[in-house]
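Handout, section B. The chain below has 274 residues.
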Amino acid sequence: MEWFQAALDRYKQQQHQGHAAPKPERTHSMRSVPTPIVYTRTRSVQVPEPVLREQRIMAGFDAGPFVDAFKILRTQVMHRIREKGWNVIGVTSPGEGEGKTFTAVNLAASLAMDVTQSVLLVDANLRHPSVHEMFDLGECQGLADYLLDDVPIEQLLVHPGIGRFVFLPGGRTVSHSAEALTSPKMLALVEECKHRYQSRMILFDLPPLLKTSDVLAFAPHLDALLLVVEEGRTKAEDVERALSLIKQSTPVLGTVVNKVGHATATPATMKRMI
């Protein structure tokens, strides 16, 4: 992975040279343990454990390297965002099929198992929404229906029976997705998510960075991005290009080296880049 480390080193050098505009830090008062959540208006679905295990969602496993890997990633992410007072993170990858949705779902599940916070995962890959498929749900309404048809958010949220985890499906596919993600209604939703619940983490599962303009258009409204790459598949030039495209607008929180197709990810596959 020498090429990968070289790409990260070049990105860090550019960051230190002042190319990235720093995000303003938000300060919160002393964190308190939230009261237990009773989901009365949110649709609750008890996803069977065999489905969780088949989809490699960590909530379906009691222990082991796979679970430990995402707990370590959770700890790294939480340390960084608490330093900055951030709570809105986008998850993307340079190309398709590199495990970004898998990573977003498992990071959200891991975060939701921490009783000090709740987690909202938003499927913002409006051209190819797939978060609902991870939970073996059929076609359902979601973010697109909120943005385009004014369907109330509370009718769209799903609690999959994992801790304090709620997700907003993508809904139907949208061809003009960049415009939808930067619409006034979408940006108002992001701002509300940022400030309404101090103990809530919001993750956006975004499209591949190099495939559409969606991430470049939407990223400035996030606190930071997490970049997912697949070992042995993602090209060095794609990593460098992705980092160069976003460096001026949004901090890169870190990079996850994912081995797609294996349910035994180890802590060594999780790389942090500051």
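Note. Residues 2-7+62-271 form a domain with the Rossmann fold fold (CATH 3.40.50.300). Compare this with the example in section A.
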